[in-house]
């Protein structure tokens, strides 16, 4: 077998393998790349903050639109999620729903991301306007990439 025919066979084999693998990108958008980088780093501050904002953006999907009208997440620190509730009646109701909410968060995000849920009537813990602007910017960025 000549060197040229051996080389031609290698090239053909390489081209066949390239077509099989096709090197298709795993991601379609920059948001998907960022999300995969940040979600994979369990317990790191950047990853937890990313998941926190993602949770805030999808709060209605997690608890449902009716419940979301009466409560919202206001703080997340070291696995503890603080949720503001409208009044003491909703505080009681949310206490009964806490396991269900935690389960929904585990399914939608990362298991163990939220280790404990606490409730508060203190509205001062609600994010300030600069956080709301950032939240809206994140929402626009994610929607633009879809």
Topology:
Blueprint: H1 3-21, H2 30-39, H3 45-57, H4 59-63, H5 65-68, E1 71-77, E2 80-85, H6 88-108, E3 116-120, H7 129-145
Parallel strand pairs: 2-3
Antiparallel strand pairs: 1-2
Helix pairs in contact: 2-3
Q: Give the overall shape, derived from the CA principal axes.
A: elongated
Strand content: 5-15%
Going by helix content, strand content and strand pairing, the class is alpha+beta
What is the name of the CATH topology? GMP Synthetase, Chain A, domain 3
Radius of gyration: 23 Å
Query: What is the name of the CATH superfamily?
Result: DnaA, N-terminal domain
Distance from N terminus to C terminus (CA atoms, Å) equals 53 Å
Largest sheet: 3 strands, mixed
Can you count the helices? 7
Strand order of the largest sheet: 1-2-3
CATH class: Alpha Beta
The amount of helix comes to 55-70%
User: What count of structural domains?
Assistant: 1
According to DSSP, the number of beta strands is 3
């Amino acid at each position: 077998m000549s060197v040229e025919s051996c080389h031609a066979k290698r090239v053909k084999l390489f081209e066949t393998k390239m077509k099989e693998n096709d090197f298709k990108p795993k991601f379609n958008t920059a948001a998907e790349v960022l999300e995969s980088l940040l979600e994979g780093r369990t317990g790191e501050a950047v990853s937890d903050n990313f998941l926190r904002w993602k949770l805030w953006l999808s709060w209605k999907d997690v608890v449902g639109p009716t419940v979301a009208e009466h409560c919202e997440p206001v703080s997340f620190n070291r696995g503890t999620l603080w949720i503001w509730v409208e009044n003491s009646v909703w505080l009681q109701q949310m206490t009964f729903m806490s396991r269900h909410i935690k389960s929904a968060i585990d399914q939608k995000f990362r298991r163990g991301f939220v280790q404990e849920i606490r409730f508060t009537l203190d509205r001062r813990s609600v994010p300030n306007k600069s956080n709301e602007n950032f939240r809206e910017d994140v929402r626009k960025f994610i929607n633009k990439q879809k």
